[in-house]
Amino acid sequence: MGTIELQDDILLIRSHIITYGNAAGISITERIRNEIELMWNEPEALVHLNDKLHLVKFQITADYQPGIDDMEILENTDPRNNYFRIEEFCKINISFVDGLGCNTGYFKLSDLYEGSTTAAHEYGHTLGLNHPHDLDIRGTGTPGIMYPRGTLVDPQYQYNPGAIPGDNTNGGTMHPQYRKVRLQDILDLRLQRLEFHHKKSIVGDFSSVWHPDHKDIAEA
pTM above the 0.90 mark? Predict the structure, then answer.
C-alpha cells in the first residue's frame, strides 16, 4: 500500500515499511526497504497519464518498531504504512500478506536472505498484484517479480539448473533470487485508472491486521 503523487513528469509512489516481531531488527528492516526500492525502480517505467508520459518512481522508507501493538495498527490512517511481523516460525512455512492491495503481513525470517526478492514480491501484492495465471514460463527468459515458488522456468533460473523441470525434490523449479521487476509489472498496476485529487491518490487499501507470533499459537 502507498500514496501516489503527481509531480510534473513523475509519478511518485511512497510506502513506509514497519517491522515488528522477535526476528525483526534494524538491519533486516533496512534490507527489506532497500530491496523493495531498488527492485521496483529498476525498470524506470514510463506510463501514460493525462496524455503525458510519466516516470514511475518508488520512495520506500522503513522503521523497526518492536513495541507496536494491535491498536496502533488498527487505528492507523496513514496509507503509506505497511506492517510486517518477522519470525523464524510461520505456521504455513512461507511469508505472506493479508490479501491483494493490503498493508499487513507476516514474514518468515529464512525467506529474507540477501537477494531473496521475497520482500519485493510481497510488496507487489500490497499494491494489488496477483500471481500470474500461467506458471510455466519456459522459453520466456527472466521471471517477473510476481511469479511464485514452484514456477517452471528455463534451467538457468532453477534452484538446480541440471534438474528435470518440475522436479521439486531436486530443485527443478524457479529460484526466487532470479525474479526481476519488469516494465509489465508496473503496467499491471494500472495506475492510470486511479482517481487523483489535488494530484494525489492511494494504491492499495487498509487490512490493518496485527499478527501474533505463530509459535505462541502452536504452543497454546
Answer: yes
